[in-house]
Structures
1.
Amino acid sequence: MNYLAHTLLSCHDPSLMLGNFLADMLSKAEADRLPDPFMAGVKLHKLIDSYTDSHPTVRESIRLLRPTQGKYSPVTIDILYDHILSVHWDGYSSEPLGQFRERVYGILLKNTELVPEKYRPVIMRMVEGDFLMSCSTEEKLIRTFDRVRARASFSNSFDKAHLDLRQHRQVLEEHFHIFFPDLTSHVENFCYCGDIDEE
C-alpha cells in the first residue's frame, strides 16, 4: 500500500503514524534509534506490507497487470489502490478526507525534530506537494507514475499505468473492496483503527 493507506491505518495515533510514514525512508540503524512509540509505527508498516503482499486478492490484481507492468506490477498496484482508496474514502473513514489530510500534515510538521535531519527537507517538500493526494485523480496519477518511472532501475511501463486503470478499473475496485476490509481487520489486531471519538 502507499502513503494514504498507511497513514489511515495508523489508528489515529500520531506516534504510530510518524513511524509508519518514515518506515520506507529510514535505514535499519536510523529506525532503531527512534523512540519506542515510533518504532511501533515502523513495525505496523511492515505488518501492513507483509499482509498486503500475501493477500490472494492483491495477487489477483498483480496478475491482471503483469502483461503490461511486468515485475513492477506490485508497485503499480500499491499506487492504484491508493487512488481507489481516495475515490472511495467515505466508505472507509468517517473523517472527511480534507480534514484527515490536514491532520496528517500537522502531525508530520510538528514532529520534524524527531526525524533525521537529512529527511526533514524531503518531508517539507512532500507536504508542500500535497503528497497524500498524489493519486487522487488520473492527472495526478500520471505525474506520480512519471516520478516513479524516473527512479526505476529497469525498463518499465509506468507511463501506461493510467491506461491499465481505465481498462481494469471495475475489477481492480472489486479487488480493493475485498482486500481493504481484510487489511483493516488484520491491523486491528495491532491497534484500533475505528472512528475517532468526538470531543
Note: The CA atoms of residues 20 and 41 lie 4 Å apart.
2.
Amino acid sequence: MSGLFAIYKKEIVTYFRSPIAYFLISSFLLGTGYFFIYNVFSTGAATMDLTFRDMAFLLMILIPVLTMRIFAGEYAGRTMDLLVTLPIFTWQIVLGKYLAAVTILLIMTLATFINLIPMFLYGNPHIINIVSGYIGFVLLGMASISIGQLYSALTKNQIIAALLTLPTLLGFWWLGQLQNMQSSAFMQNFVGYLAFSIHYSELIRGLLRSEAVVYYLLVILTSVTLTINYIKWRR
C-alpha cells in the first residue's frame, strides 16, 4: 500500500502546486452559493433539492478540468514511461491518482456545507434529504471522475480528454430524456437505469435506494478496471 500512498501524495501535491485545485474549489463554491441563494429566495423554501440538481450540472462541467491531466499530463510531460517502470502495481498507480481526484471532490463537497448554516438557523430542513442528496452527489462525482480518468488514460492530449469526458457525462445525464421515447417497457427500464439523472433525482429526494448506489458503484468499478487494464497493457 506504500506505492498507492506515494502516488496519492504526489497527485495531491501536484493539484495544489498548480491553479487547478484552487480554481475548481473556488468556482464550485461560488457557483453553488449563487444557486443556493437564488433557489431559496425564488421558492421561499429552505430545501437543498434544486441546489443539489444545479450542483450536479456544475460538477459535470468542472470534472473534465479535474481529470484531463491525470494521465494525459504524464504523457505530455514525458513522465509516463518513468511512472510505469516504478516497482509498484498498476492498480496502485490508477487508484492513487483516482483517490487524489476524489479528495478534491470531497473538499469541494465539504465547502458547500456553509450553505447549510442559514438553513438550520432560519428553516426546518429535512435532514434525511440532505444526507441522501450529499451521498448521491459524491457518488455521481466519483463515477464522473472514473470516466474522466479513463479518457485521460486513452489520449495523450489533455484538451481531447476533457472534450471526450464532457459530452459523455452529459450524455449519461440526459439519457433519462429518452426514456419516454422507447416503445418497449424493457428499453424504457434499460435507458432509465443507465441515466445518471434518474438515480440522482431519487437520491436528492431522500430515496436512498440500493439500486442507485449499486449503479454508481458499477460505473466506478467498470471505468477504473478498464483504466487499470489499459495502463497494464501499455506497460
Note: DSSP finds twelve helices and no strands in the chain.
3.
Amino acid sequence: MPSTPKYRRILLKLSGEGLMGDRQYGIDPDTIERICNEIKGVHDQGVQICLVIGAGNIFRGVSSAAKGVERTSADYMGMLATVINALVVQSTLENLGAPTRVQSAIPMATVCEPYIRRRALRHMEKGRIVIFAAGTGNPFFTTDTAAALRAVEMNCDALLKGTQVDGVYDSDPNENKKAKRFDKLTYQEVLTRDLRVMDASAITLARENEVPILVFSIHNPGGFAEVVFGEGTYTIIN
C-alpha cells in the first residue's frame, strides 16, 4: 500500500444495512466497532473524514408501523433514524479516541449541532470526524443525495460508498452468479444503464461538481483504507 493517501478529504457514505451485521434489523455492536476502527485508522493517517449514514437498519424494523403514513411523514421518520445511527457511531468513535461531531440538517440542539457548513469545515480542519445526520433535511431526497450534496459542500476529493458488495455490477451478484462487475464507469453510463448504485440526483450532483464516487464493500476488513490509498477492489465512477 502506498505511504500517502490518494484522497486527503473524503466523505464516507454508509448504508444503515451495513450496521446490522447478521441481524434482521437494528445495530450490531461488533460490526459498528470494526467499521469505526477502520475509520479511525484512516483518520490517523491524516485524512479528513466526514460521514453520512443511512437508516435502513432502523426503518426496516418500523416499516410495518409506517404503512399508511404519508410519504412526507415517513421520510421524516427515516431522517430521525439517521440521527440515532449517527449518535451510535459518534459514541463508538469517541470510545476509540477519535474526536467527532454530529451535525443534523433538522435542528435538535439537545443532542447535536445544527448543520452549519463553515463550522463543519472548521471541525474537519481541526482533525475532527464530522457525521452529517437527517439527510438533506427535506423529504423526497435520499441519504445518497445528502451524501453527494455534503461531499460537494465540504470540497471533498472523493465520495466513498461502502456497500454490501465490492463494487458496481450490472445486476445483483447475490441473485445472479454471472453478474458483471465494473472497475470503472462514467456518470453517464451509470444513468444510462440505470445501475442504481445511487439515485440519479446524487449521480448528477457528483457529475456537475466533478466528485468521483468509489464503491466498495464495507464488509471487507481493511477495504476502506485500501480504497483511500488507491488500492484494493472498488468501482470508480467519474
Note: The mean pLDDT is 93.
